[in-house]
Protein 1
Amino acid sequence: MSLSPILTRLAALLPAGRLLTGPAQLASYESDGLTAFQERPLAVAVPETADEVVALVRFCHAERLPFVARGSGTSLSGGSLPIKEGIVITLNRLNRILRLDPAQRFAVVQPGVINAQVSVAAAPHGLHYAPDPSSQSICTIGGNVAFNSGGAHCLKHGMTSNHVLGIKAVLATGEVVEWGGASREQVGPDWCGLFVGNEGLFGIALEITLQLLPKSECFHTVLAGYRTLEQAGDAVSAIVASGLLPGAIEIMDALALEAASAAVHAEYPPGCEAVLIVELEGPRETVAVERVRLDEIIAASGPVEARPARDAEERLAIWKGRKSAFSAVGRLSPDFIVQDGVVPRRRLGEALRHINAWSREMGVRCANVFHAGDGNLHPLILYDGRVPGALERAEALAGRILKMCVAMGGSITGEHGVGVEKRQYLPDMFSVDEIDCMKRIAAAFDPCSIANPGKMFPVAGALALVQHGLHPLEKAGLISRE
């Protein structure tokens, strides 16, 4: 089949075989981690160098051709959903660590580098890269930058934005910019801080300078089981109120525990509605003092069982169960939505009571996994897409959860981004003027609206309308066009 004139010119920018246009080739790119949304692009470009990426973006700008940058496709908000009349620029082959400086503690990486590989490369020098999303074994640094990813240990170490020192990027206009560098001491506007979390609306990062941290000398990891989620939430409040700053505080509910046990044979205390994971880290002397206080707090919180990890192997087993939770839920349901709202820590118990009550009321199962330390909820809403109305009910529950988060003074996203799925809730959190300000900032980087268009911002005049059809909530009559 012959290519259209525009794709013929696009193909000329790459060596033969690196512009994918066949139906079977495009099928893998139709959706990301949010499989409820699907769209087939015109083509997928596979660059292997930064110069090729720049050439592709400049071509798109000249032709007003929409493009979506994509790494491993692990976005859970539809952030890398293709554009029907646009192309996907996949960055997986830009996967080199260009420089690693152990003395100054930084690494310069390409956007297709896998998150966990940065720590693997830094480990011989006693260093690591702190942000650790659950998908860190497959997600890319470019995607982490786009969505400002966090992870279990962001409570102590912060998000991706706290670890990006410099960025070289090609903006949607084709302009190549360089911001920041190897030092935190910068003069002028924080362009790196603005770029991180832009959800692909500004352009594509070509090189990212990452801060590396010394590996902790010592860990103390405790797994505690509770009869109720509220008890686990109260334990979190007590830990934070004590002044301790653990590296991570995580909670999993009974349904998530069931999935993790089946998937990776993780062992949890029987008869528990919730499990709390708390990890201290730092110098050996500091952890020795803090663990005494932590063990006292947990003992006073009334757990069914509290089990400290006795060695590195047991610690890794605890984290394997937690980090497998998202994928493990696939054993319980053929489809699921992962939400990403945030509530104040003090209202965790209240939020979970609402979620459980709505789950029962709507007949939709929901497994709860969350970063309890910073109130970042990750309800995994289960449904079977083959059953008529199942997706609509799941989306309706997701919408109630997000509106609750905003009403409690929280956010519609902690680290997954807005993407396609949550854009209709942006007006619940921000005013018309605030959204207009965001749009004007995006337009300064992308005046032609070709970089990941249709993401983050509500569609004018029809908040629930998405490119490939009506949003499930509109189909269900739960939201309407204006």
Note: Residues 461-482 have pLDDT under 50 and may be disordered.
Protein 2
Amino acid sequence: MNEPSAPGSVDLTRWPAMADPLPSTFRAGIARILLKRVVTHTNIRVVFPDGTSWGDPRRPTMRVIHPDRFFARLGRDGLIGFGEAYMAGDWDSDEIVELLTPMARDMGSLVPAAFQLLRRWYNERQPLSEDNDRRGSKQNIARHYDLSNELFATFLDESMTYSSALFTTPRESLAVAQQRKIARILDIAEVQAGKSVLEIGTGWGELALRAADRGATVTTVTLSGEQADLARKRIKDEDRSDLIDVRIQDYRDVDGRYDAIVSVEMIEAVGERWWPTYFRTLDDRLAPGGRIGLQAIVMPHDRLMASKRSWTWIHKYIFPGGLLLSEQIIDEVCASHTSLKVVDRLHMGDSYADTLKAWRERFTADPAAIDALGFDATFRRMWTFYLAYCEAGFRSGYLNVVQLTLAREGEHRP
């Protein structure tokens, strides 16, 4: 992997959390104990500047470059500190996915029960400002998706699709696998000529364009101004403006009924408080006999219940206000708040791991291109860690992604 080098100097005006942490012998000592446990349980290796090491030399290796800062961050902020330590260059690895994968696999058991009780003293709660009401949703989406269309273009395929592809083999092109994913979700929603389609979460317009190719009329909503601008340009360039209406609109404010609804990896931005509202909206907007194609990242139900109140590194730096669901939660919310039912499922976690690998390799291939857009080395390390962290989640099986077909009770057909 062509991994960005550790920043020699972090711009603390842009990255205040990267300031050297205050020393804490007690917390740093706990962090050392926990890291040794991780080494034992996951069979990784950790090496230190003085030449000492923990673990088998043949295993994926983590190099601790600044031990005092690393253990201070880890002891103070747990997994948030672990990610920030990577951003600050306090540790590094040439095998970052291989290193993180066994950690993700054993996520529920790495911290012993006695230390779990201490989590409430250092685990922060999600800020109230990141609640996904109408105002919060727009702010949360802007913080990620309005970074720069040019940034996303550096690592996405030509379709600008920012969700899991569907591979038949890891060796096929990302572009081909993305079109297979899009075709399948349009198929399960029964999108065809003459039908009206609602898309919740426009992205950069690829799914709407392919639905229009089938002769459907599409209303697609997003909260990202950057995405809407590029989607409209692409739609105009492909002469599909008569079939596609791109709106900067909250999903809760859509009216009318549609023959099909599609939503790809948008539900992760909804938040627990709003899950019933989201699924009721799907139910209210779906015409009789219609189908919904939903693609969602999911996690084990027990881990969701244990962690859903935590504020994580991903929340702080990548997806504010985000929360994954479990399939059990989706089934329960649909049963309790709608007339909808999941009638078909396709799990494709291996495909997401391969998608993330392709994105990470593209992202790290040309650091100068990222720098030219105004993003610094700390940002590049942050996004490298994000992409590797997510890939490890899917490689380990801790995370999965599923395409769901939803229909109303009594309207199911093969």
Note: Confidence is low (pLDDT under 50) at residues 1-7.
Protein 3
Amino acid sequence: MSTVFLNGEYMPKSEATISPDDRGFLLGDGLYEVTPFYEGVPFGFKGHLQRLLRGLCWLRIDYDTSELEAMHRELIVSNGLDSAERSMVYLQITRGAAPRTHYFPDGDVTPTVYAYAKEWSRPADDVWDQGFTAQTVPDRRWSRVDIKTVCLLPNALAFQDAKDAGADDAILVRDGVAIEGAHQNLWGVFGGTVITHPVTGHILPGITRAVVLEEARTAGMKVEERPIQIEELAFADELFFTGTTGEVRPISEVDGRPVGSGGVGEVTRTLSDLFLARVDQAKAAEQVRVS
């Protein structure tokens, strides 16, 4: 039985209970983060923590995050995932339980903090090498997507639209621009230039996105952060997503049309290799830290 963390305590998941008055349940008044672990080593934790802190400040939720890294590590160990090739910790912080109002509750309210750990896996090489299909769907999300709230209904509807169309993933389109995926950042390669949408209120500033941007520039690739018009998708040499559990995820087909040659492009493959090398560096640094 899995062990979870709830409001300062570790317990079996079956014993975890949350008040029906919790504002996360009633109003979606909360944030979440997903941090990947590789053989028990957290990857990009500082970036996830900084993004969480920014969201907490914006939502005006008062919570001390100083013990979160220790909690993440404990969940991985207590669930026997410290040797797993890939695992993750899901963390959710809501404003807490209070009488339902459309404004912030009066007085002090203790935030609800819940986290769990689980294993995940990268697609098999032969599956990854084929690439994944995507469907363009309308972006119906609110205007502060850069805040990682638990309000994911538009994302879920978009993903379901894509699934109903027989696609693996969704590409969200707003005002004629291919913004990002339903839970991943979108990239394109056009004539040797790597392009991804700039950080605005309309995209989530992905931690994997930041790593791939850095690796691409370090490798000497030409990189642009600019909107990708939906019409441009038909002329892309390569398209791919980046995300915590998607890592670098190649797109071979959009709306039933092949992307480039229809396989995984050289730039996508190179950036995937560079990302995985960065993961290996993090694992090596952890070994040095604990030795």
Note: Residues 39 and 107 are 43 Å apart (CA to CA).
Protein 4
Amino acid sequence: MKAIPFMQFRGGSSKGLYFKAEDLPADEAERNHYLLLAMEGTTEGDPRQIDGLGGANSLSSKVAIISKSQSQLSDLDYLFVQVVVGKGKVSLTQTCGNILAGVLPFAIESGMIKATEPLTSAKINIVNTGGICEVVVQTPNGKVQYAGDAKVDGVVGTSAPIICNYLETVGSTCGTLLPTGNSKDNIDGVEITCIDNGMPIILMRATDLGLVGNESKETLEANESLRQKIEQIRLKAGFLMNLGDVSQQTIPKMCIVSPPENGGIINTRMFIPHVVHEAIGVLAAVSVATACVIPHTVTKGVSNYNTKNSNLSIEHPSGEFTVNLDYEFNNEAITVHKSGVLRTARLLSSGNLFIPD
């Protein structure tokens, strides 16, 4: 058996394994082979992940690979890897803002970065997309504080707040904020908005799909005709979004929007892309919030957006997610300077992971 040092963190409403890049093979194919063995126990694919550390769910089948940054613009490099449950493959085409919340705590706990009092801040280079996120962690007495009063919907209890300010996310995967060049497009008779402010997503009105928008995860996943329709839209939109053939990719995500029900600006149901998210991803929420402030997207007439409010509450099945957008318009063109979110994280375990040699 081969022993590999690791830590496991809950980051936001996800959970994953965190590694130093130096503890994994430099060769990408060999490294991905290790990660499949670590998460599933096999490279053939096991949806139960019974022989690995995965949780048999896309939200708990995630990996962060961390190294000191070679760039003067950032302190850490963060590579996100999604192990696709039961498929015997991994995806690097996206990033994860929830898992990012655990990156600085991991770097401090593993000795990569020295903590300062009472806060420690670091700029993190998101390798998958090239964006930069400034993360601030509470570190009284030079140690990461996990206990606190911050609440993240989709997570039981409260924890110390972690502030994540995304500095460069616009068009990070597709090249531009509105990758089709339009605020709205029409595919198969359904109006959509394609947008990328950190996460490429496609927004559709619930009413255009014969839905209310407050349906449960189980109800939506049991609707096979709906799932097929959404997937056909996704496949066609992939080419329009400069992503090419997305049939084997986990992006773009699909978002059904409807009027808010609990004081937010909009209600969402996220397909990620084939199962429904129990909440909403960090960067998906940022992209949804951005769509709400842009005129003439499919959110018009659906969202409760108020131009005087920069704190935008996105409703999802487990509660709400607040995004703080710093943006301005110039001749109807939007410039997003910064997207701020609050997350929490907790160290769950650390030690050696054993895989077959």
Note: The domain at 2-169+344-355 is CATH 3.10.310.10 (Diaminopimelate Epimerase; Chain A, domain 1).
